[in-house]
Amino acid sequence: MTSESILALKGIRFRAKFQVIVPPPQVAVPPPQVAVPPPLVNVPPPPPAHFPRDHLTTFWQDLDEVKECGVLATLSPREVHRQEAMFEVIVSEASYLRSLGVAVNHFMASKKLSRMVSPLEHHVLFSNLRHVMSASESFLVALERLLGECVVIPQLGGLMLQHCPRFRALYVPYLSNMMFQEALVNKLLQENKGFVSALKTLERDPVCQRRSLKSFLVLPFQRITRLKLLMEHVLTLTEPDADSYLTLIKALVGLHKVRDSCLMKWAPRPIFLSSPLGSASCKQVIMECNEGVRRMKQIEELVRLEVLLDFSNVKLLPLIVKGRFLLHDGPLRQLTKVGSDSKISFTDVHLHLFNDLLVISVQKEQRFGVLDHTSFPGNVRVELLNASMLALPTGSFLLHLSQNHAGHATGLILAARSRSDQVAWMKMLSAQS
């Protein structure tokens, strides 16, 4: 069954990118008990939202109920922005759940794909993704119930706080498995022709919208990050003296705990101090928090690049490795002399330089087709060229790979966009471990 079929059973109708959801009547998750500010005199209270609706929208103020009840005239611009921020949590959760439905009902449930791998490999590939989807579904039902009771959303902090323990219990095992998951996908793509054939058939299905299996498998990591950012945005639009402000703070702490628990599986030590704040200096606290933020950004960057880098034409290697992080990346031009007149041709390439790896690729739309890769810094050496004497563009330099992905020595003449860019690249590529 497709994700649309599964969600339709619960009253959810997808006719565009986002859809407002009908919560099943038997689910009763009470909203947080926070008083809604009374409307202005002679203005009737906002009505509940009725679902399903015929039109679709990604903006709260475009809802029919909001337009018809006249509540926009009673709210300040800041409060309207706050409502939009909370509504974005709902519509983005609907989009996330729909994509999880593709991962579970299209890929994970595929009998053809499961026949190509062992039961253990199938478990490593998908882990507890079905339970992660169930948690998202429950959260979305609760969010839609809250919106259905009154179009002016009182707050989301209490609801988020209720669901954080379940998020933590389910997301931590899934994200802890990601390194093994990514390594197994690469191994199967390299060694299992039946798996490759089945996967290509599945990925060509229109339900995937030209997205790969890898892009669906990293969704939970991306969602935890985005959920925290969305709730932080809601907090910035909430008055500090509002009743919901403290609840929002607690909800954000809960989301931080989910992220930190996941990060502890990747990093050598936790982000937050295990001892009370009073026992450490302010400088130590700031340094430890900054280090935690830096490590999380490094991990998020690896997850993002795992989806974008396509190793189908070269030897596969796991990109998500503990301790790896991106140092520098950017476009360059590869120069090649062709013909008897030594005419120079140009090819646009993109370099991703990690602390232990150099990847050379060609950008294709939003992805990067990998041409070559090698370990860094051991197999990498750069040499400055006399551009004017060799009739080369300004900013040219020679990149030596003593051993590329195929085990051969090779060299590339590269040209940076500017002299400063050339200096930056040569400095980075000359770095020693």
Features:
about 425 residues; single chain; about 45% helix; 2 domains; alpha+beta; disordered N terminus; Dbl Homology Domain, Chain A; 14 helices; 8-stranded mixed beta sheet; globular; PH-domain like
3D architecture notes:
This protein is of the alpha+beta class. The chain has 2 domains: 3-266, Dbl homology (DH) domain (Dbl Homology Domain, Chain A, Up-down Bundle); 325-429, Pleckstrin-homology domain (PH domain)/Phosphotyrosine-binding domain (PTB) (PH-domain like). It contains 14 helices and 8 strands. Helix 3 (77-108) packs antiparallel against helix 11 (219-236). The chain is globular and about 75 Å long.
Rg of Cα set: 26 Å
Largest sheet: 8 strands, mixed
Total DSSP E strands: 8
Spatial strand arrangement across the major sheet: 1-5-4-3-2-8-7-6
Helix content: 40-55%
What overall form do the CA principal axes indicate?
A: globular
pLDDT average, as an integer? 79
Give start-end ranges of low-pLDDT stretches.
Answer: 1-55, 267-282
Strand-residue proportion: 5-15%
Oligomer: single chain
Order of helices and strands: HHHHHHHHHHHHHEEEEEEEEH
Tally the helices: what do you get? Answer: 14
Q: Looking at CATH, which topology of the largest domain would you report?
A: Dbl Homology Domain, Chain A
What structural class do the secondary elements suggest?
Answer: alpha+beta
CATH superfamily of the largest domain: Dbl homology (DH) domain
CATH architecture type of the largest domain = Up-down Bundle
CATH domain class of the largest domain: Mainly Alpha
